[in-house]
Amino acid sequence: MHLTGNTIFITGGGSGIGRGLAEAFHKLGNKVIIAGRRKAALEEVSKANPGMAALELDITDPNSIAATAETLIRDYPDLNVLINNAGIMPFDDPAEEIDDRVATAIINTNLLGPIRMTSALIAHLKSKPRAAVIHNTSVVAYLPLAANAVYSATKAALHSYTLTQRFALRETGVKVLEIAPPWVDTDLIYKSGDPRAMPLDAFIAETMAKLGTEADEIYVDAIAAIRDNPGVNEHALINAFNQSLIDNPIPVG
Ligand SMILES: NC(=O)c1ccc[n+]([C@@H]2O[C@H](COP(=O)([O-])OP(=O)(O)OC[C@H]3O[C@@H](n4cnc5c(N)ncnc54)[C@H](OP(=O)(O)O)[C@@H]3O)[C@@H](O)[C@H]2O)c1
Question: What is the pTM (predicted TM-score) of this model?
Answer without folding.
Answer: 0.97
